[in-house]
Design a protein that fits this description.
The complex is a heterodimer. Chain A is mainly α. Chain A has helices at 2-9, 12-50, 54-57, 72-80, 83-115, 119-128, 134-148, 154-178, 182-190, 195-206, 208-224, 227-232, 240-246, 255-275, 277-284. Chain A folds into 2 domains: 17-70; 81-284, MetI-like (MetI-like fold, Orthogonal Bundle). Chain A is built from 15 helices and no strands. Chain A is flat, with a radius of gyration of 26 Å. Chain B has 2 domains: 3-59, no CATH class; 76-316, MetI-like (MetI-like fold), CATH 1.10.3720.10. Helices cover 71% and strands 2% of the residues of chain B. Chain B has a two-stranded antiparallel ribbon. The chains are: A mainly alpha, B mainly alpha. Chains A and B meet through helix 2, helix 5, helix 6, helix 7 and helix 8 of A and helix 2, helix 4, helix 5, helix 6 and helix 7 of B.
Chain lengths: 290, 317
């Protein structure tokens, strides 16, 4: 009784506020549905192409849902055209480069974090390599590799990718190591642990979430790299992005193969990102935004 | 024989022990810190810097596909670049691309971030979907959209046809009127989420009490945005803009996949032009000059970024 009396007597402020709230929610959700449609649709489309037969993806008007979804036919074509080999090549190059960069980069990062080796300018000098346009890095590198006969070799690509990943690893690991309280390290050293021992059995385990995140993002950046691979691979070491270009010739288009390779190459990255969500912004901005 | 001398153990001098001793030297503070940075420094010097120095030498010579041994020609290649209509066209395209793309990504990203700030049921599922384009290979994004824009078999013309009530047969990627919008929509699809994520992180870090106080004082939502939110988010926004601009400036993959610079050279950017000079025409000395011009341009933006980030550094140190 009292509540209804309250409502009839003083409806304006409270009701107005609920109404306003509902309206903002409606706006927000409408906007988000639009955004989800825009950002989700290409993923949906590429996935359906991978499951379509060529008579379906080359049809006008386009077919949205394949009649009998089947990825085997496209997968078979991918295997026959060397698409799977190219993903394997990418895996070898990217994993090796990431591991090398993690080891070499973390050692340097520890030195920068704990002793400020070379001062802030040295740290930024390392970081600034990251912002050089790849096209301007790859040309001098190409001349060097041609002289060394490293073009179209695994070790050539691995060394280049590892080096180009170093700025990211050093910069990220420096900030993750800094977050480990120095007192813990000091007490380990009082107990007689050497510097390296402290790094490997105290600091790195404590910084391991950061190490894993850095490793995964380094992997993703290298995995997605195209220009270096385009310049430095010929016939031996074709990575999947270079393979993709061969599916889009001036005459022919192999959409089923392209979509399937894209899907295979993207799925692991997407899963890793979802697991690493919390670190994504830090990784994308090199720690400038947390 | 192991003797104790103070707290230090002296090992007999065998090759293995000498090697182990040099590893132990890493724990010596003064030497150790340089030993730790040495491998990384050597790699960067050998793979990035040494070739770059060589490129400087080459850029003052006249090496191309026909002449393998160069002679000194002075700054000719640099002067040629600024008389090269195709280079200037590519430079203009790149600046145009960077400006438009970053502006739209910033605006859309900010709107999305504002929409998702605060309590919203379902947020946990929406944000992960919105962030995914950022980690997909730009080349894959380019090729995916190339299939979406396709005149006959793409769904975009089909959907437009539903609204228009008649078949639409736009040749998006070859028509001078539609090619830039198509590139921008593709680029915005991939990188708006970057702006959105960074700005969302920035907005979340702002204490909501500032905004509430402004609202209680009777500020309109526009005034709250203009005088409270924007000044507080500006440091984060500036970093996001610099990162995006540096990245957009070197765009290669997306345009390579969509148009490869066409129609003609209408959408050719610096990276695409430099690629064709260096690796299709093998004009080695000219390419080296372009490389260094590019680095000089980018260095300006990097300096700005350094100022921004070093302010951060001082807080951390």
């Amino acid at each position: 009784m009292t509540t209804s009396a309250y409502k009839t007597l003083a409806p304006t402020a409270a009701r107005k506020r609920t109404w306003q709230k509902a309206r903002t929610y409606a706006w927000r959700y409408a906007l988000l549905v639009g955004a989800l449609g825009f950002f989700g649709f290409p993923a949906f489309w590429i996935a359906t192409i991978a499951f379509k037969s060529s008579s379906e993806y080359f049809r006008n008007p386009p077919v949205w849902i394949p009649a009998s979804p089947n990825i085997a036919q496209n997968l078979d074509k991918v295997v026959r055209t060397g698409g799977l080999t190219s993903i394997g090549n990418s895996l070898i190059v990217t994993t090796s480069a990431t591991l090398i960069a993690l080891i070499v980069g973390t050692l340097a990062a520890y030195s920068l974090a704990r002793y400020r080796t070379g001062g802030p300018n040295f740290a930024f000098w390392i970081l600034s390599q990251r912002f050089l346009p790849p096209v301007s890095v790859v040309f001098p590198v190409f001349l060097l590799f041609r002289a060394l006969r490293w073009v179209d070799t695994f070790h050539g690509l691995i060394v280049l990718y590892a080096t180009f990943s170093l700025p990211f690893v050093v910069w990220m690991m420096r900030s993750y190591i800094r977050e480990v309280p120095i007192e813990i390290e000091e007490s380990a050293q009082v107990d007689g642990a050497s510097r390296l021992r402290t790094l490997f059995s105290i600091t790195l385990p404590l910084a391991s979430p950061g190490l894993i995140a850095t490793g995964i993002f380094t992997f993703i950046f290298n995995w997605n790299e195209f220009l270096f691979a385009l310049v430095l691979s010929r016939t031996n070491v074709i990575t999947y992005p270079v393979k993709l270009t061969s599916y889009f010739g001036p005459e022919a288009a192999f959409w089923g193969e392209a979509a399937t390779v894209s899907l295979l190459a993207t799925l692991p990255v997407v899963i890793a990102t979802l697991l690493m969500q919390r670190y994504l912004v830090t990784g994308l901005t090199l720690g400038a935004v947390k | 024989m192991i003797r104790r001398e103070g707290y230090r153990i002296r090992y007999p001098s065998t090759p293995i022990n000498r090697m182990l001793a040099s590893i132990r030297a890493l724990s010596d503070k003064r030497k150790g810190k340089y030993v730790l940075v040495a491998p990384a420094t050597v790699m960067i010097l050998a793979i990035v810097l040494f070739p770059l120095l060589y490129a400087i030498v080459v850029s003052f010579q006249n090496i191309d596909a026909r002449t393998a041994v160069g002679t000194f020609v002075g700054p000719k290649n640099y002067l040629d670049a600024f008389r090269d209509a195709r280079f200037l066209n590519a430079l203009g395209n790149t600046l145009f691309f960077t400006g438009v793309a970053v502006t739209f990504e910033l605006l859309l990203g900010f709107i999305l971030a504002q929409t998702l700030i605060g309590h919203l049921p379902g947020k946990r599922f929406i944000v992960p979907i919105l962030m995914l384009p950022v980690v997909i290979a730009p080349l894959i994004v380019g090729y995916t959209w190339r299939m979406l824009w396709d005149t006959q078999y793409g769904p975009i013309n089909q959907v437009l046809g539903w609204f228009a009530g008649r078949p639409i047969e736009l040749v998006w990627l070859a028509n001078p009127v539609t090619v830039w919008p198509a590139i921008f929509i593709t680029e915005i699809w991939q990188w708006t989420p970057f702006m959105f994520l960074v700005l969302l992180a920035g907005l979340t870090a702002i204490n909501p009490e500032y905004r509430e106080a402004a609202e209680i004082d009777g500020a309109s939502s526009w005034q709250t945005l203009r005088y409270i939110t924007l000044p507080l988010i500006w440091p984060v926004m500036a970093v996001a803009i610099l990162f995006r601009a540096l990245d957009a400036f070197k765009v290669f993959d997306i345009i390579f996949a969509l148009t490869n610079g066409g129609p003609g050279t209408m959408t050719e950017t610096i990276s695409l032009y430099a690629y064709s000079v260096g690796f299709r025409n093998f004009r080695i000395s000219y390419m080296a000059a372009l490389t260094l011009i590019l680095i000089a341009i980018v260095s300006v933006a990097i300096t700005f970024l350094w100022r921004r980030m070093s302010a951060d550094q001082e807080r951390m140190a």
